[in-house]
Amino acid sequence: MKYLHLIWASLFRRKTRTVLTLVSIIAAFLLFGLLDAVRTSFTQAGQSANGAARLQSGSKLSFIQTLPKSLLGQIERVDGVKAVTHANWFGGAYQDPHNQVFSFAVAPNYLDLYPEVVVSEAERKAFAETRTGALIGERLAQKYGWKVGDHVPLQSQIFPDKTGSKNWQFDIVGIMHSSDKKTGGFYDQMFLLNWKYFDDTTPYNQGSVGWYVTRVVDVNQADRVAKAIDALSANSDHETRTQTEQAATASWMKQLADIGLIVGSIMGAVFFTLLLLSGNTMMQAVRERTSEIAVLKTIGFSGRSVLAMVLAESVLLLVLGGVVGLALATVVIPAISAGSGGMLNLPSVGAGSWVLGLVLMALIGFAVGALPAWNAMRLNIVDALAGR
Amino acid sequence: MRWLINVLLFVFLLVVMALWVMLPWYAAIVLTVLLAAWLLLTRRGRQALSVANVGISTLGQRLGSTAVIVVGIAGVVGVLVALLSMAEGYAETLRKTGGTDTAIVMRGASASEVASVLDRDSVTLIQQAPGIARNDKGEPIASNELVVAANLPIKGGGPDEAGSVQLRGVSEQTWTVRPQVKIIAGKRFTPGLRELVVGRGAAKQFAGLEPGQEVRLGTQKWTIAGVFASGDAMESEIWGDASVVADTYRRGSSRASVTVRLADPQAFEAFKTALESNPQLKVDVSTTLAYFSKQSEGVTKVLRVIGITVGAIMAIGAMFGALNTMFAAVAARAREIATLRAIGFPGLPVVVAVMLETMLLALIGGVIGGLVAYLIFNGYGASTMAAGSVGKLSFELRVSPDLLWTGLKWALAIGFIGGLFPAMRAARLPVTTALREL
User: Fold this and answer.
1) Which helix (H) or strand (E) is A54 found in, with range?
2) Which chain A residues are within 8 Å of B321, Cβ to Cβ?
3) Which residues of chain B have a CB within 8 Å of the CB of A243?
4) Are B184 and B190 in contact (CB under 8 A)?
5) Which residue of B has its CA nearest to A273?
């Protein structure tokens, strides 16, 4: 620690070069922060206690196929089930068919199974009592400037009412806030309507249900309960497929894209370039200090401490740039999420990303410092001072 | 004064970059020819060329720092081209699926085929519209189709891992409506039976999709009759007889869409007007080209924005790497440059020489990056859940000449900025101090 001043001085011996190198490192780690946030948002989607305790049962045939409502009572009686609710895909759009609004028609007890979605008691009551009532997520409310009491028309892309019109009218009665972004973050953009109103209005549903959500009493029993639910409809014309919410989300994400591979290859290219770039800087830095290092060794610094000082210098360079880059990513990510109008919902740079980033900084620092540090350690004082 | 020049330089740089981005390739060739003419034919140009020669001939001795520019820029171009080729391949696959000589009819305001429902009467009415091509027997060439999703086990996945595939129920006319669809193994499905033909892309992604094998859709067993290839988005689907599929999915006599072959592309307007003015129908009519291009819009835009964002951040890194290297190169040659200035070389040739050196390295980097991206990613298979569909869409990444040109433009832009500031420093170097420096 007592040499920090010396290391700092040699790092900023050539200000332009160090600053230019730092900017490159900052750019690399900014990118790392952004991409790792994307990767994390993909891998962690649904991965929480709530996600593990909830089961989703959909039609085994395909996710667009509906199930009979008679299953509700049967599932409720399965051993180990705490509560069951159901929902239908509504396929709403606002004003233009391409402004899709994620909208579910849900049973009255739906939100009981989602404790991470916070709605005030009064608003829950209003939702239950208003036939055309709707609960909307806070981000959705922001996006279209909707507030409680607004009368909102939505177009369903799938379901017409009895007259054949696909324009539906809703009254917003409450706003949803999510307390756990991992599983509830999705609900910040959701639009929930009453299943009863939906089923009564469209002639195409006729009492059917899109999927069931079941909360189990004991998480460790989830697999057994899932099998028991599927057994209820085995060999009927409406077989179900039950998965934990965790597994279902993970499987969706996997079908969307192999994000790990894409992020991995981009970061590979970035860090390889960074290795070369900062390696070059360190080589130059040590080469032009040859005589100074020789002087250090002359006045008694051992080869090892010279080695350590050069290594410390390169690690310091990487950590300086890396920390600034990651901090920048921390600032930029919420701005991107806000700027995309709810399209992208990235988590901020988490502890995991910071740890991974710091490890990478140290590793790259050691890698780029190794060769110049080794050269500095092996430096022959007489040759170096003579300029040979 | 110096401050003013720097500000002007910055504004100049912004203007140059803005023009550069929009530059088509033939304008670039004109620029190159003009530059070459200037270099070879004028006195200043020849001076610049000889100074540049000195710099370029010593590149070999500075291999490490030279590599920083080349590899840095190759990395940027490689990643940029690879990411953009994803957008290009996705859009291209969907665009190829449609044409101007076929049209698709769906229920009004349906965003995609899955969301559309047409009842039996509508389907019959649609087929009677004018403008549809007719076969030898005088029947309209139209395929009434039903689009649903099916869960199938994923190839190489766990025992319980299922993915969604788009299942299209088609009528017999479909083979005439879509002549690009060819059976490459097995045979067509037999109408009325639980038989499927599967797209080549779907067969690659899902387990058990080989001719003669059986798959379970819900409780039913379906036999795979054959595999088809079409070179477009249809390859990611599996097809069966529409009436049998409707039965399995309890859809009765309703269909999702009608795809027709038009008598000729000009007949589209008449066809569209006839259907949209029919009071008994509430449908949207578009050419399949327009429909599938629209489906790809959103995803393509997102992919493109991601590619350009990642590319831009990497470009900033590479640019500073280039600046660093070129500042060092200019500093190392300070005495040579000062000598040149002392014996009467003006500033311009020195600036041009440094710029030429950087741009040459950038060009090499750009070519390497583009080439690597082309070799690895052109034709690379990828898949995603497609917008407006209910199954995975397989597509191939496509590194088009346009993309390579974009990559090269980026490389030269990075080289330009990376060379300009060191070049200005070289030209401004006070002769006396530089000469005294040892």
Assistant:
1) strand A54-59
2) 20-21, 24, 273, 277
3) 160
4) no
5) B72
**Residue A246 placed within a domain:** no
Residues 188 through 247 of chain A touching chain B, CB cutoff 8 Å: 204, 235-237, 239, 241, 243
Core vs surface per residue B339-362: b (16+ CB within 10 A) or e = ebbeeebeeebbbbbbbbbbbbbb
**pLDDT surpassing 80 at residue A46:** no
Give the range of the structural domain holding residue B397, as residue numbers without chain letter.
14-95+296-436
Range of weakest confidence among A38-47, A61-70, B7-16: A38-47
Residue B9 counted as domain residue: no
Report how far residue A224's alpha carbon sits from residue A228's, in angstroms, rounded to the nearest whole number: 6
List chain B residues with CB under 8 Å of A246. Answer: none
pTM summary value: 0.82
Q: Which domain holds residue A211?
A: 61-238
Task: Tell whether A27 and A163 lie within a shared domain.
Answer: no
- Residue B318 falls within a domain, yes or no? yes
Tell how many helices (H) and how many strands (E) occur in chain B: 14, 12
Cβ contact A255–B392 (<8 Å): yes
Residues B117 and B216 in one domain: yes
A206 and A69 inside one domain: yes
Chain B residues with beta carbon closer than 8 angstroms to that of A101: none
Residues B160 and B228 in one domain: yes
Pairwise CB contact (< 8 Å): B219 & A35: no
* Confidence check on the interface: ipTM exceeds 0.90, yes or no: no
Last residue of a domain, one of B281, B304, B323: B281
- Mark whether A232 and A93 lie in a shared domain: yes
- Convert B4-15 to b/e letters by CB count within 10 Å (16 or more is b): eeeeeeeeeeee
Q: Is residue B291 part of a domain?
A: no
Encoding tokens for residue B111?
Answer: 């965003």
